[in-house]
């Protein structure tokens, strides 16, 4: 289908998949030119500019087959394409970005939603390509853990895989006077994180850098946020530990419930004590502590 002159159209491509395939699938959809991707229950919805339906469908099918070849489950039969006119764009897109509340302490919202009233802290996140709009369980689990610690959040923290900057911004807001270093290998994420920090008035408290752990200062932290995923966590483990103070904590998120035993073993092998495990949907947060030596 061709773009008509009078009206602009978009495509919404929906694919049903299991949690372990979501990251690979959204990566693929972005590489096909998706304007944005959102997870809704067990589906990923990606939005595209108007284009030839057959070509788009075939490209998505190819992606799904590649993901299956790498051993991840996703069903090519589950792909659905829906074309809609521009006037329904915001409605389609915004539907997925509702304010998220963490207890009665934090409200995460897109800029077009009304601010929460004080004393609730208000955090605005501009939904772009970076992960971390606040709608995902892995982010919410970390935010819950932060809110519970709000009276003892340290002055300095490190956020590894900062995405939209949401955790660093929440830390800066919950602990006035603190300074958070947020790192991400994706330059687009870092740009979005900086924009979000400015939007929330905490740009001076947040230092966002492109890169992995080597991009953080040569110093140690009392608290490290690591909302990553199992394989990345295991790859970065040594480097994370080098940045952790004795009695310091790392909050690991992005872990699937069925990976629990494997992750726990890895953490214990590296001398960390698991102090608490939280679960939301299929996802786990593991709170860990490095014992005093
Ligand atoms: N902290 C946000 C985003 C988590 S998504 C939240 O909690 O919602 C994970 C992020 O980690 C992605 O933006 C990805 O680009 C980044 N990432 C992946 N591997 C990384 C690495 N080795 N070092 C730093 N960041 C990494």
Task: Looking at this protein, list some descriptive labels.
single chain, alpha/beta, 30% strand, 293 residues
The total count of strands amounts to: 14
Strands of the largest sheet, in order across it?
A: 10-9-8-11-12-14-13
Mean pLDDT: 90
Number of helical segments with 4 or more residues: 8
Question: What's the quaternary structure here?
Answer: single chain
Low-confidence parts, pLDDT < 50 over ≥5 residues?
Answer: 1-5
Given the helix and strand composition, which structural class is it?
Answer: alpha/beta
Q: What compounds are bound to the protein?
A: S-adenosyl-L-homocysteine
N-to-C series of helices and strands: EHEEHEHEEEHEHEHEEHEHEE
The percentage helix is 25-40%
Return Rg in Å: 20 Å
Distance linking N and C termini: 66 Å
Shape annotation: globular
Main β sheet profile = 7 strands, mixed
Q: Tell me what portion of residues adopts beta-strand conformation.
A: 25-35%
What can you tell me about this protein's structure?
This protein is 32% helix and 30% strand. It is built from 8 helices and 14 strands. Helix 1 crosses helix 2 and helix 4 runs parallel beside helix 5. It starts with 8 loop residues before the first strand and ends with a strand. S-adenosyl-L-homocysteine binds next to helix 4, helix 5, strand 9 and helix 7.
Short description:
The chain has helices at 19-31, 53-69, 89-94, 137-148, 166-174, 187-199, 230-242, 260-269; strands spanning 9-16, 36-40, 43-49, 80-85, 100-102, 106-109, 121-124, 156-160, 179-184, 206-210, 221-227, 244-256, 273-280, 283-289. With 293 residues, it is an alpha/beta fold. The strands form three sheets. Strands 10-9-8-11-12-14-13 form a seven-stranded mixed sheet, with helices on both faces. It has a four-stranded antiparallel sheet with strand order 2-3-1-4, covered by helices on one side. A three-stranded mixed sheet has the order 5-6-7, covered by helices on one side.
